[in-house]
Specification:
This protein has about 220 residues and is of the alpha/beta class. It has a single domain, classed as P-loop containing nucleotide triphosphate hydrolases (Rossmann fold, 3-Layer(aba) Sandwich), CATH 3.40.50. The protein contains 5 helices and 9 strands; from the N terminus they run βαββαβαβαβαβββ. The strands form 2 sheets. It has a 6-stranded mixed β-sheet with strand order 2-3-1-4-5-6, sandwiched between helices. Strands 8-7-9 form a 3-stranded antiparallel β-sheet. The N terminus and C terminus are likely disordered. The protein binds guanosine-5'-diphosphate and magnesium ion. The site of guanosine-5'-diphosphate has 19 residues, from α1.
Length: about 220
């Protein structure tokens, strides 16, 4: 019997960005299909929603954050827990795009990983007349951040709302699969039963010193 690595199907998503860019409206549109004209800016809450991505059922735990002034211990904690981040700015506010640089830096530092699943979201695309951030400007920022995907959304019109969450979820799944494969590569086989192989998934290098260690090549390609 070979070792099996169980796949997590709950994914933690954190929605971050300056106040007033539309984080709560985007979240409400995605989770509840409703347009909420005015949302209490101080409310920070999490929501659950099940979606299907490429035939796989995923339960998204979405944290709609409030306030980005200081990185509190609480914030650090949910960045640690978060697996994917929606970084939202408003296309009507250049400073809200700049604010994202600081946030992204914090995420990369806290997670010590510069390939964290991120989607950059330029919200309020219905306010084209008030646009102050050009598409190319936002796009070049996204390229500087390891080619993070860039979408323009309108929470008001529910444009591209599903797409940003699905893209993020896909990135998390891809990373999850890559992690599972690297764990599968480190399987320890016991001596006792050479016919039927007993496997232990190994995350550290410590225990099972009696075991014979064999590297297993990944058997599938990650797209
Ligand atoms: N025109 C327009 N207004 C939006 C959109 N999304 C949010 N808003 C407005 O922007 C304001 C702030 O939205 P909110 O979701 O509370 O922002 P948050 O502080 O980032 O959570 C509210 O007055 C919303 O009605 C959008 O897509 N288009
Ligand atoms: Mg809010």
């Amino acid at each position: 019997m070979s070792a099996r690595v169980s796949r997590r199907r709950d994914y933690h998503i954190v929605v971050l960005g300056a106040g007033g860019v539309g984080k709560s409206c985007l979240t409400a549109q995605f989770v509840q299909n409703v347009w909420i004209e005015s949302y209490d800016p101080t409310i920070e809450d999490s929501y659950r929603k099940q979606i299907e991505v490429d035939g796989r059922q995923c339960v998204l735990e979405i944290l709609d954050t409030a306030g980005t002034d200081q990185f509190t211990a609480m914030r650090e904690l949910y960045v640690k827990t978060g697996q994917g981040f929606l970084l939202v700015f408003s296309i009507t506010s250049l400073s809200s795009l700049y604010e994202l640089s600081r946030i992204r830096e914090q995420i990369v530092n806290i997670k010590d990983d510069d390939s964290v699943p991120i989607v950059i979201v330029g919200n309020k695309s219905d306010l084209e007349d008030e646009r102050t951030v050009t598409r190319s400007e936002a796009f070049s920022v996204s390229q500087n951040w390891g080619n993070a995907p860039y979408y323009e959304t309108s929470a008001r019109r529910r444009a591209n709302v599903e797409e940003v969450f699905i893209d993020l979820c896909r990135q998390i799944i891809r990373k999850d699969n890559a992690g599972a494969l690297s764990i599968e590569e480190e399987i320890v086989y016991g001596y006792e039963d050479p016919g039927e192989v007993q496997g232990h998934v190994r995350r550290d290098g410590g225990q099972h010193s009696h075991g014979r260690r064999r590297k297993k090549k990944p058997t599938c390609t990650i797209l």
